[in-house]
Amino acid sequence: MYLALQQQKPGDIVKSMSGQTIEILNTDAEGRLKTG
To the nearest 10°, the Cα dihedral for 21, 23, 27, 30? Predict the structure, then answer.
């Protein structure tokens, strides 16, 4: 899933290409996104 080329921080809400909204809760140095 491709979201953006910008920084994400906890509390941000982003929209995926499929239209699903995702709240950023925790980030790590590698930029992984955990879903589920």
Answer: 0
CB-based contacts of 33: which residues, under 8 Å, 6+ apart? 1, 3, 22
Indicate the DSSP class of residue 5.
S
| pTM, entire model | 0.50
- Alpha-carbon distance of 1 to 26, in angstroms, equals 17
In b/e form, how buried is each residue of 7-23, taking b as 16+ CB within 10 angstroms?
eeeeeeeeeeeeeeeee
